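Hello again,

I reread your note about wanting to compare the complex against the isolated chains. To keep things tidy I'm splitting this into two emails, and this first one only covers the full assembly. Below are the input lines as submitted, including protein chains and any nucleic acid or small-molecule components. They are followed by the predicted structure of everything together. The single-chain runs will come separately.
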Amino acid sequence: MTSWKDTFRRREKAHAVEALRERLGQFRELVDKNNQVLELIADAGEKLGGEYIFDIQYLRTFAGEIETAVRGVISSLNAVTGNRYPKLWNTLESISAEINAALESRSFVPKASLAIPLEQVDEELSHTVGEKMARLAEIRRIGLCRVPDGFVVSAYACQRFLEAAGVEPIIAEWFDHRETIDEATLARGSAQLQDRIHGAALPKDIARAIRRAVARLRKGRSCSSLAIRSSALGEDGELSFAGQFQTLLGVAPDQVPGSYKEVVASLYAIGVMKYRQTGGLHPARGLMAVGCQCMVDARAAGVLYTLDPSAPQTDVLVVSAAWGLGKAVVDGGDAVDRFEISRHPPHHVLSRSIVCKERMYALASGRGVEKTAVAAAEQRAPTLSEPEIAELAATALRIEKYMKCAQDIEWAVDSDGRLFILQTRPLRIDAPRDPASLGTTELMIKYPVLMRNQGEVACRGIGAGRVHVVTEQDDFDTLPDDVVLVARFSTPRLAAAMVRANAVITDVGTATGHLAAIAREFRVPTILDTEVATQRLRDADEVTVDAEENVVYGGRVAELLRYQLLRSSAYAESAEFRLLRRILERIAPLNLIDPQSPSFVSEKCATYHDIIRFAHEKAVEQLTEGYWVRPSKASPYVRRLELEIPLDLIVIDLGAGLRAEPGSRTAKIGEITSTPLLALLQGLTTEGVWRTEPAGMDLDGFMSSATRALPLTTALGTKPEQNLAIVSDRYLNLTLKLGYHFNIVDSYLTETRNDNFIYFRFAGGATGLDRRTRRAALLKRILEKHDFVVEGKGDLVIGRIKKISFEIMRQRLEMIGRLIGFTRQLDIHLKDDSLVEKSIDSFLRGEYNAFSY
Amino acid sequence: MKNRAEVLVLDDEAIVCERLKAHLESNGFQVETFTESRQAMHRLTEKTFDVVVTDLKMEGPSGLDVLRFVRDQMHGTQVIMITGYASMEAARTADYTGVYDFVLKPFQLDEMGKLVKKAAKKATRLRGRTEE
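Full-complex prediction:
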């Protein structure tokens, strides 16, 4: 007879399982919405890749869809946690308000720092720092060349200054609501606006920001004078504005704020206003960021074109050079040296014209620049040596390769012979295009086609080089430049080599994946998921990848390569492009990285990505907290697993994951029908993976362990955590607490490739931070070698992989099983960094007893 | 003799014209672009095109006007209409008899290339010409 107590207990158990199932349902919903947001972000990123044409309406729809999905994530999180994070709603509202403001008025200038150090700038910030400085910072950031140190006074600062100076009423008076604006009106308006700027005081915070930035710049550097250059919004865009704005050289540090005003005033120079008007823009409504950089004390300087504008069909770079500063070359007027250099390494000089250079521009002792006499012996000497010319050519071609079109580059060589790049912009050549010689049909007759319409294009463009088939052992540091990388998987490991490659092709991968995003970031022509690339393309063969028409040709297709350089519009940007980039800034960046950090709080979420990341983390935490489930004979869906290894694991079946006989509290491995759990257990129970001997601990390890509080998020005082596997036939959510560390695996495994994913999270450990960090480093490396996207800090590692075929995904889960077993007590043994390498090697070799315990 | 299909592209955004031109040319088409519909319509009276790719919403005569013009005056020329999300509803109610197809923004250049190819074939067939 059953007592009322038994009945009550049974009900309680059933209730606990129900509650867990419900909570898991909400968690799944959150994960779905989370993935939807990530897909939308990837999708929008793809639109920036150049393959699409879209309009403002698309942007509105995108903004609406992503906002709805983020709302869904916040809702699910609050459902899972009992409304613990209501403040996330405020964050969402403020981000969405900013995005909508940007969508409504295209002149939206985001609130940004007033002065931004160059090292914090990349091309994404072009609407804040102007395209010219953004581009310069970008080529410096990715290590293409040396660029003088400096900072940028932002467009936001300019907007504030113009407001404070009160230019708007003048602009309205002279230029608004007029049918035509004649030259006299332009001249009067221009004079009045420039006077207003010169007469206005800089707002105090802007002056202070500039002075501080100058002081920071000079700290530890020899930077006795600066170059102050315009970087107007839209400069070098559809209109080039070349040479229209003011540039001041040799500015003394204390004069920078005054010079800043002078450069800003050039927004209203009569020439600029006419130019804007002719280009179809409002003559007086513009904004300007201003670059302030340490002056290069140039021995020689000048301009380089990566193609000869008068003969673009020749394989020639053209360099103009003068002694001292490049002003003589840029302004024209003085005779300068001219070199024609081969575009092919080792960049021989094909022709040279060395003129008599009697005078040169140099830094004046007080301020500014002056024309001085050139020593007699140097007047007829060439300004550049052969090695300098070769370095200049190689640098310029690297920049051209990245920019994907011919470049017009200002450069300087200092007295120590160091080459600096001062500016780079698209070289505008109106070259006739010959469509007849560029049609795919014509090219296919001329060149062998190795692959056509295989896979999907992840980043458009054209690149040629020698094939390098990637292997596990590859050391990307020694990779030659100008290769076409061919790989089986689109592993994130390839990202490291991407910047060096001219094109990338893989057998497996998707255009919405991580590698595709990196390909677009570095603008490397990339074709993924071809299935056959590693079979069709052989190491060291020369090929041309046309990732516009999705064709791979044997040999170098000169027609295509040249065509690409002459297309000035390769990355020309429409207003929609810029707008999308701007709104993505409030959506895509991820600032909340480390869940253990004190700043991992809802108030620090600055983007939609931050919100979903925060929500996912907190939901996982909640899922693994608190509940205690006991197997019962009566319930067919909760069982304790009988394993060969001493692991106490409870399995909860959500549907078709367990074929357990009634009347037992335990289940054997053979009764599991959950494919992902089986794969993982297969790895975990691989012979030798789960060592049963007690691990010896040295004194260091012991002391750290003894003094360390429990590292994880679970509140103390609750019941000890259970090892739980919540499963269905295709799903697994596994929480394992092994000693002092946590493993979480969340995975979906089906025949439908696009549904498949593994989320693996590892945190904690008993030893000191150094050893735990070593274990984390080891996990990170092994996961990356198996194509996971990995992030983490300290002892936390999060690995993700998705959209891979059933069999490969199954193997990855099995590997995760082995990894969990292998790393269980490994931190104790990782006394120094060399042991990390040793352990990685032995894991990859399948030897799991790297240490004798 | 080679028979290259002639395409007229009309969109008030120069960048759209430029990118479509580059893409279609690399697929072997002869392309002329216009950012003003009046000029485009004038050109259509001078020369026979196989395919007209036009934006729906423009200042002055709209894509619909261009379609009517082509339908009434030209034999065989196919019209592909580019529309934004919002215009799709309006598109359903208007008379678009004779349009070859609609392309919704955002679209992939490749997608447009394939469509133009098919439309050009139809134009050739209707005019009783043989291709290449």
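For quick reference: Chain A has a mean pLDDT of 82.

B.
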